[in-house]
Specification:
heterotrimer; A: 222 residues; mainly alpha; MetI-like fold; 8 helices; flat; B: 270 residues; alpha/beta; Rossmann fold; six-stranded mixed β-sheet; four-stranded antiparallel β-sheet; 9 helices; 36% helix; globular
Chain lengths: 222, 270, 225
């Protein structure tokens, strides 16, 4: 059927599975960067310094509204121009991490906005410091509504990792491209990549939904 | 048949306008209608009262065919509504049969359910044009007459969101009447209204009772209104009619213990 | 600064050409995405299991894999099945099919957000199932789905940048070409980034806001009210 070659499939499968670990690694590192930088972006927009708030806001809007693949090229090629040469992995992680940080900052922001004003007033009345208010009172309440959005972007960053292939990060799609150009066969490698992505993202999405329900219960929301 | 003709006296041979015959309905383990038998004559005005969960709203919803019944048959003017005859036996209604039968019934809801994306007059014209196939001019004329009757003609070009609850409910009544139904169902039409506008809606229903030959079934919590307007009041309890009779008798001198408890609780609250 | 002006004077026309192709890809992909979203969103609400399954399968496959993989598959693998698409066509079809899957969920969500009473009164007024949907439910759902569609169209614009990877001569493609010949990476990619940003913020966002305002007026409401 359609000239599908099973022996070829099994020949390239180990190579693709190996590349899958790179894909997962890239998603994991990128997401970790995004979690931390995203929080900085979100809190940066809540300061009383207007200039900083506006600057961070514009920065987030810019990153969110422009293509990730172009940002990957930008970070990778502009480094050497100013005298800093970045390895593909480094450039890729910076680009994808910042891109998803801008998404996550919006999720955090919505979560923080959902905490009633009265909670802040109570913190002030109890004379809690700014940091204590955030980390002991506000963020724990802002987290539950943010969990679904955070989960969606975890799956999202995983699905965007193939874009890293454009600067030579050896993830799944890059490996499939290599196989294709060596063997002139595209049917099996590209189809396998699609199936591998489905095989990971569908259970992941399902697992995240389960986690959401569990987390909401554990945090005492439901 | 035109609603403007004079009322026909009910003879013994005339079928009732509405007949519930051994009708049951369950939600899972919960029985909301329990082998209900209820006949309503043409032009009769029947109020249904009872505690929440007693099945009174369900009577209207299954009659409007918003929800299926599990057992029994509902008849409209002698014709089966929930079922149809095929090869000498009654089978479940097809969509086409439901649509044909439904055209004799109009319903007004607790929460008005006006179409927010249409003006008042468009709300009234929608079904006559789209379901009855009236021309826009005919539908507009008919709708304006009805809006005048409910005293809201000056708001014809407004969107529902600009109207008070009482005004919205009067539009909803005009909209249902625009289909010229023979049977009108009123489902707690004042429950979502502020106290000061309840009167204007009840007045419209009083007027309808006086001027039009309509069969009306009214689910209400307004005991005074039920007593004044109805030919008969039915007290529902656990999916059955626990007691029924002329309003003065049922509300003024209830015989059933449940009815007495319910009425004293409701009247105390007022 | 002066150097950048010289750069713009020299390469400006190519950025303009690329931008035109990007806008074409965006518009065509958007039309396809909206059509697919409507069909799949309605199919997902069908009473028939088979119809629902077709929609679910489509949505899960296109949302479960990456746009880039779908693009490559459509461009490189489909020809093996006898379906050869020109690169321009393959580009907007891949983007449109991908965003259509996300849009289907938006359509479905908007339709089920219409209050149940609206369905019931449409039945009580004896409107046919088709008219219930087209005249009562969909117009109201449309208003609920406009804001999420605004975001989807920006995602769609961003998605079109990938068509450069199958050599469609869009904005991204031109930026790479210019970078390759001049090595002025900051200028080449930076200019393209700014153009994408302007398209999103000055074209898509304001037109969606205007559309929301028009729809809100049709509902007799003031925006936000």
């Amino acid at each position: 059927m359609f000239d599908w070659k099973w022996d070829f499939t099994f020949e390239i499968l180990p190579r693709l599975l190996l590349a899958t670990t790179n894909t997962l690694l890239a998603a994991g590192i990128g997401y970790t960067i995004a979690l931390v930088v995203g929080l900085a972006f979100a809190l940066g927009q809540r300061t009383s310094i207007t200039l900083l708030t506006v600057a961070v806001r514009e920065c987030v809007e810019f990153i969110r509204s422009t293509p990730l693949v172009l940002q990957i090229f930008f970070v990778f090629y502009v480094g050497p121009q100013v005298g800093v040469t970045l390895a593909p992995w480094t450039a890729g992680m910076i680009a994808i991490g910042l891109h998803y940080a801008s998404y996550l900052s919006e999720v955090y922001r919505a979560g923080l906005d959902s905490v009633p004003k009265g909670q802040w007033e109570a913190c002030k009345a109890l004379n809690l410091s700014m940091g204590r208010s955030y980390f002991r009172i506000i963020i724990p309440q802002a987290l539950p509504p943010a969990i679904p959005g955070m989960g969606n972007y975890l799956v999202g960053i995983f699905k965007d990792t193939p874009m890293l292939s454009v600067i030579g990060v050896a993830e799944l799609l890059h490996t499939a491209n290599a196989v294709g150009s060596e063997t002139y066969r595209f049917l099996e490698p590209y189809t396998l990549v699609g199936i591998l992505f489905l095989a990971i993202s569908l259970p992941a999405a399902f697992g995240l939904r389960r986690f959401e329900t569990w987390a909401r219960r554990a945090l005492g929301v439901d | 048949m035109d609603n403007d003709t004079h009322p026909i006296r009910l003879r013994e041979t005339d079928p009732p306008a509405v007949r519930f015959s051994q009708v049951s309905k369950h939600y899972g383990d919960l029985t909301v209608l329990d082998s209900l038998d209820l006949d309503i004559a043409a032009n009769e005005i029947v109020s249904i009262i009872g505690p929440s969960g007693s099945g009174k709203t369900t009577v209207l919803r299954v009659l409007m065919t918003l929800e299926p019944i599990d057992d029994g048959v509902i008849y409209l003017y002698g014709q089966p509504l929930t079922h149809m005859e095929r090869g000498g036996i009654l089978v479940q209604s097809s969509d086409a049969h439901l649509r044909k039968m439904r055209s004799d019934i109009g319903m007004v809801f607790q929460h008005f359910n006006l179409f927010p994306h249409m003006t008042v007059i468009e709300n009234c014209m929608e079904a006559p044009v789209q379901a009855l196939g009236l021309s826009k001019d005919e539908a507009r004329e008919r709708s304006m007459d009805l809006l005048t009757m409910v005293g809201i003609a000056d708001k014809a070009g407004q969107h529902p969101s600009r109207l008070s609850g009482g005004q919205q409910q009067r539009v909803a009544i005009a909209r249902a009447l625009a289909m010229r139904p023979k049977v009108m169902l009123f489902d707690e039409v004042t429950s979502a209204l502020d106290p000061e506008v309840i009167g204007e809606v009840l007045n419209v229903i009083r007027q309808l009772a006086g001027e039009h030959d309509l069969t009306m079934i009214i689910v209400t919590h307004q005991m005074g209104f039920a007593r004044e307007i109805s030919d008969r009041v039915c007290f529902f309890y656990e999916g059955r009619i626990a007691e029924q009779g002329p309003p003065d008798q049922l509300i003024g001198n209830p015989q059933n213990e449940r009815t007495r408890m319910f009425l004293s609780a409701v009247l105390d609250a007022d | 600064m002066e150097r950048y002006l010289d750069f713009l004077v020299e390469y400006g026309p190519r950025f303009v050409d690329g931008t035109i192709v990007t806008v074409q890809q965006t518009v065509l992909a958007a039309l396809l995405a909206v059509a697919i979203a409507l069909v799949m969103g309605l199919m997902k609400l069908s009473k028939l299991f088979l119809v629902r399954s077709v929609a679910t399968t489509y949505i899960e496959i296109f949302r479960g894999t990456s746009l880039l993989i779908q693009l490559f598959w459509i461009f490189f693998v489909l020809p093996l099945f006898g379906i050869t698409l020109e690169k321009f066509t393959a580009g907007f079809i891949a983007v449109g099919m991908n965003l259509g899957a996300y849009g289907a969920e938006v359509v479905r969500g908007a339709i089920i957000s219409v209050p149940r009473g609206q369905y019931e009164v449409a039945i009580a007024l004896n409107l046919s199932p088709y008219k219930r949907m087209t005249r009562i439910i969909l117009p109201q759902a449309l208003i609920a789905m406009l804001p999420p569609w605004g975001n989807l169209f920006i995602e769609l614009l961003k998605g079109t940048a990938l068509v450069a990877l199958i050599s469609v001569t869009d904005l991204m493609f031109e930026a790479r070409q210019i970078n390759g010949t001049t090595f002025l990476s900051a200028e080449a990619f930076g200019t393209a980034l700014i153009i994408y940003y302007l398209l999103a913020r000055l074209l898509i966002s304001p037109s969606m806001l205007a559309l929301e305002r028009v729809m809100a007026r049709k509902m007799g409401r003031t925006p936000g009210g």
